[in-house]
Design a protein that fits this description.
The protein has helices spanning 24-28, 90-120, 184-188, 195-206, 216-229, 250-257, 276-288, 292-306, 319-331; strands at 11-13, 21-22, 34-35, 42-47, 51-58, 63-64, 81-83, 86-88, 125-134, 153-162, 167-174, 210-212, 310-317, 348-349, 357-364. It has 371 residues and is an alpha+beta fold. The strands form five sheets. A four-stranded mixed β-sheet has the order 1-4-5-2. It has a four-stranded mixed β-sheet with strand order 11-10-9-12, with helices on both faces.
């Protein structure tokens, strides 16, 4: 009689393990490595600093470990992992992760473009660039006496322009309490105004404006300094968009660029502009970019119209198989270029086959029959 699911697994000491039962590590260390083919059938009790239990698996139920990559054909030392119904080596899994990150970023690009277009159309827009001046513990005047012995923002340059590029503000302000008269700080930054004087200029420039700025790191540092000093810089970190980070542009720019780090698979955040006109020009570049779906749809129809023998091919299958068919057809010249690669082509879940998807391919029919 077999064991019922609610029965506890038998426990064996190291010198009492029945033949044919091995741990996962022991299966992997066999001359022909294998992996568990089912649930554990027993437990190995290990006694050392504390008692522990390791699952034991039946050798007869195990299966050979996968070492042949189904994508690149590499024979690897480490076991491949299954993905999209095929084994993948570490390199191909990383490539798949990069491609997925790129697809995710592309999916956000259209939304970013629409948001930035809306900001530029708002007559209340104020584009703000911030450059923080950090303390240097090793220099007199900007060292521990004005902070805690670590680098902290002691001053900030702020520039602001409206949507037409007209300068609204250009000021440098201290973000720390004033030092004694004729102190070394004033010699280092003679253009920096006391916080209360700069705050009056900033409130006047930002009154009734919706701010757009790079990040809450730099702008937030200025805002927090004002709270600490008891002055109102007139900063609305929500940017008039209802959320705490409604005015932030840095993350939007990263999603618009779609530049994926090949190691971390995260979007690369570009350096923060410290010139308001540069930031405004960047917003204009984003707004002038056609949304991905619109641009691809135009290319799709243009390329189909260019080929008199164009046909639409609907392919239904597992996602990996659909991608491979698309790649083969493209490589043999049987697909029109509609802006999609095999990995980027959108698919829809099959209405009748669970786990299957359908993709529409712009095929080119070869032959003399044009009827």
């Amino acid at each position: 009689m077999g064991r019922h699911d609610d029965e506890p697994l038998p426990v064996h000491d190291a010198d009492e393990v029945p033949e044919g039962l091995l741990t996962e590590a022991e299966l992997a260390a066999l001359p022909e490595p294998r992996e568990p083919g089912g649930d554990a059938v027993a437990l190995l009790r290990r006694v050392g600093g504390h008692e522990s239990y390791v699952p034991l698996y039946a050798l007869r139920n195990s299966r050979p470990s996968v070492f042949l990559c189904g994508d690149c054909g590499a024979i690897t030392e480490q076991r491949c992992q299954w993905s999209d119904n095929r084994p993948q080596c570490r390199a191909c899994r990383q490539i798949a992760s990069i491609l997925q990150a790129q697809r995710d970023a592309q999916a956000m690009r259209g939304w970013v473009i629409g948001d930035v277009r809306g900001r530029l159309a708002d007559p209340r827009l104020a584009v703000v660039a911030v450059r923080l001046v950090m303390s240097d513990p090793g220099r007199p005047g900007l060292g521990p006496g004005r902070g805690s012995g670590r680098s902290v923002p002691v001053a900030a340059y702020l520039e602001a322009v409206d949507g037409s590029g007209q300068m609204l503000l250009k000021v440098c302000t201290w973000l720390v309490p004033p030092s004694p008269a004729e102190g070394p700080d004033e010699a280092i930054l003679p253009e920096a105004l006391p916080a209360d004087e700069a705050a009056a200029l900033m409130r006047s420039a930002f009154a009734g404006r919706r701010l757009a700025f790079w990040s809450t790191l730099s702008m937030g540092a200025v805002h927090r300094a004002g709270q600490h000093l008891g002055v109102d810089f007139g900063l609305d970190l929500r940017g008039g968009h209802g959320a705490l980070d409604g005015g932030v542009l840095g993350a939007f720019v990263a999603k618009w660029r779609c530049d994926v780090d090949p190691v971390s698979c995260r979007l690369v955040t570009p350096a923060e502009p410290t010139d308001a006109l540069v930031l405004l020009d960047l917003m204009r570049q984003i707004a002038a970019t056609p949304p991905p779906d619109e641009a691809r749809r135009v290319r799709h129809h243009q390329n189909l119209a260019r080929h008199r023998q164009a046909v639409q091919i609907a392919v239904t299958g597992r996602p990996g198989a659909v991608r491979r068919i698309g790649a083969v057809l493209a490589a043999t010249g049987m697909l029109a270029d509609d802006g999609y690669t095999a990995d980027e082509r959108p698919t829809q879940p099959s209405a009748h086959l669970p786990g299957y998807v359908t993709a529409h391919l712009p095929g080119i029919a070869h032959g003399a029959d044009e009827a």
